[in-house]
């Protein structure tokens, strides 16, 4: 199955919460169940999340999630973890995750029960997607308040190098489609940039190599399912689906592909 939502279709879901520092945290939901309650308590590092996480039953498959977060100045997301694997992709602005500066287009992977943060916006704010192959609706598990909820076992955090998007002029002049490997691990964890010329086509890697793939249109547009998906559109390809064939629009397209690692 392929999930797909354009930025225009997701826009009506946008809402804000007040961070403890006084700045606003905005969220726009693309697909999947809500990742956390809407109240400002869900961004309070001193508050224990009210929702308990129940792992999937044997054989249960949960839907993927995709949502966009915007942090204004003075809106910090404090150190925390989640109960599922996830990617986050910086698409606008700048700031830092922990001690590491981030910029567009830059992705990181955080494994389940791996702590990270704080996420601190720069002067111009910070905008990034959170992407998951399996939904988690419990919200951020802030540290140290929720430390007792953290599962034991290996932790995994990977921050990839930035991938610069093409200018509109450079993309329009492209003549061949290319796939650039940004990150690749033996268990299927991967980050790739697909660069496609105007009206060109490119077949992505087989999603069965990992546990499914999230895709973000970072430049230009693609056509899928009879609709145009422009910049900041999000997709998810399940691991049992055929390899995704991206068809670029008249201005070309660049798509960041994020592949989840297979279960150990």
Topology:
Elements: E1 2-5, H1 7-10, E2 15-18, E3 24-31, E4 65-71, E5 80-81, E6 86-97, E7 100-102, E8 106-110, E9 119-132, E10 141-142, E11 157-159, H2 168-173, E12 178-184, E13 190-196, E14 201-203, E15 213-224, E16 227-229, E17 234-237, E18 245-259
Antiparallel strand pairs: 1-17, 2-3, 3-4, 4-9, 5-10, 6-7, 6-8, 6-9, 8-11, 12-13, 13-18, 14-18, 15-16, 15-17, 15-18
Give a concise summary.
The protein is mostly beta strands. The protein has two helices and 18 strands. The strands form three sheets. Strands 1, 12, 13, 14, 15, 16, 17 and 18 form an eight-stranded antiparallel sheet that branches. Strands 2, 3, 4, 6, 7, 8, 9 and 11 form an eight-stranded antiparallel sheet that branches.
Please give a structural write-up.
The chain is mostly beta strands and 264 residues long. Helix content is 4%, strand content 44%. It is built from 2 helices and 18 strands. Strands 1, 12, 13, 14, 15, 16, 17 and 18 form an 8-stranded antiparallel sheet that branches. Strands 2, 3, 4, 6, 7, 8, 9 and 11 form an 8-stranded antiparallel sheet that branches. It has a two-stranded antiparallel ribbon with strand order 5-10. A hairpin with a 2-residue loop joins strand 15 and strand 16. The chain is globular, with a radius of gyration of 18 Å. It starts with a strand and ends in a 5-residue tail after the last strand.
